[in-house]
From TrEMBL:
Domain of life: Bacteria
Domain LicD/FKTN/FKRP nucleotidyltransferase span(s) in chain numbering: 33-253
Protein's name in the database: LicD family protein
GO terms for biological process, alphabetical: glycoprotein metabolic process
Organism: Parablautia intestinalis
Matching PANTHER family: LIPOPOLYSACCHARIDE CHOLINEPHOSPHOTRANSFERASE LICD
One Pfam family hit: LicD
Length: 277
């Protein structure tokens, strides 16, 4: 069934409450990582917010925490015992039936933040932050391009369950419908082998395998995730790239310039449930 869902418009007060819950989630990541000696850092819009706004980008409705792959796997493992399971839960492709994203999410229990056209998914959609594992990108010019294409294919396969319902272009919709027929157990096993094939090396570039990169960018400098400084993010001090200027220029261009109102991206949702006060 391809019926369209209705858009839920967040009020400014609701957005502030969502951000406050996400800050709780970031603090939980920080607490666990500091206790267990796991390295993490701000990435994406969260890093941009720290530099440009000393906290959240005012209209932003998500947060991004990055780990090199080995650190991500450590975090995923220790969450079994260290995570406050009364309040939070983690989702990952390997642990959550029906989950189709190549990165993890940490979510707040007793909340809902349901993405538009994803109402059908068989897992909980609480208010969340993204936990981004960064994997190696081959150094060789040809291997790098093949790797890039494989990342593109996996991203589209994982998206196909949503794209087959929400895509408006007829031919793209048909391709997604074909892709969604691939057995997910097989896809996940092959994707894990794809991850494992790049482990054990120390390449110059890394990336989130199923997240798009800017045009012409195959990956990001490893040093942006290992050579870190602390930055203010609201009432927290969080690690981020020491050379934040180089990172943010690759990611966003003229990052200190505010985009016009029509380009201030938010994630469209169809349902919001905040915890009872």
């Amino acid at each position: 069934m391809d019926s369209k869902s209705s858009l839920y418009k967040l009020t400014d007060d609701e957005l502030k409450k969502v951000q406050d819950i996400q800050k709780e989630l970031i603090y939980e990541v920080k607490r666990i990582c500091e206790k267990c000696g796991i390295h993490f850092c701000m990435v994406g819009g969260t890093m941009l917010g720290a530099i440009r706004h000393k906290g959240y980008i005012p209209w932003d409705d998500d947060a991004d925490i990055g780990f090199l792959r080995t650190e991500y796997e450590k975090f995923r493992k220790v969450c079994e015992t260290e995570l406050n399971h009364k309040k939070y839960y983690m989702q990952d492709l390997r642990d959550t039936p029906g989950y189709r994203w190549g990165y993890g999410k940490l979510r707040r229990k007793n909340t809902e933040f349901v993405r538009l056209n994803q109402e059908f998914v068989p897992y909980e959609q609480g208010i969340s932050i993204d936990l981004m594992p960064f994997d190696n990108v081959p150094d060789h010019w040809l291997s790098k391009r093949i790797h890039f294409f494989c990342c593109f294919l996996y991203r589209k396969i994982f998206w196909s369950e949503v794209g087959s319902r929400s895509e408006e272009n007829f031919w793209k919709k048909m391709i997604y419908k074909i892709m969604r027929c691939l057995p997910m157990k097989m896809v996940i096993k092959r994707y894990q082998r794809f991850i494992d094939s790049g482990c054990g090396k120390k390449t110059k570039l890394v990336r989130i395998l199923t997240f798009p990169t800017p045009k012409g960018v195959y990956g990001y400098e490893r040093k942006w995730y290992t050579n870190l400084s602390l930055y203010r993010f609201g009432d927290m001090q969080l690690p981020g790239a020491k050379d934040y200027d180089a990172y943010l220029r690759v990611k966003y261009g003229d990052y200190m310039k505010l985009p016009p109102a029509e380009k201030r991206k938010v994630h469209p949702i169809s349902k919001l449930t905040l915890p009872e006060e």
